[in-house]
Amino acid sequence: MLDKIILFLIGLEWFGFGVLGLFFPDIIAGLLGVTAYSESNLYLNETRALYAFFTIIGMMSLISILKVNLRKKVYLTFTILMGSFLVGRLFSFGLDNSFDGTSAMIFLNEFIVFVLAYWRYTKREFIF
After folding, report:
1. Does pTM top 0.90 for this prediction?
2. Domain extents for the chain?
3. CA 122 from chain center: how many Å?
């Protein structure tokens, strides 16, 4: 039951966030306080590509509520993704002095998802 709750919450968050960025990248940019650094539409292309990934892993999380054999893969995917984001953000905080209210909230969210995914990936007995 605990896995279903965790997977639902993570899945809902990342699926919703992904769909928003996929179809409305300017809204996401505004929420994050990011501005386009180029006159080309390449930033839209890059944003949509990244948020398509977020949509898919959110969907994977929701599907794994019913498909038990997918759960370990979902937890591993979130562990790797969130761990990578956390390392990158720590570098950015140190190198760019970019730690502020928004980046702190994003970091905290990613840290919580990382801890939950890592905990469930390493402690859960899975039947395949």
Report:
1. no
2. 2-123
3. 19
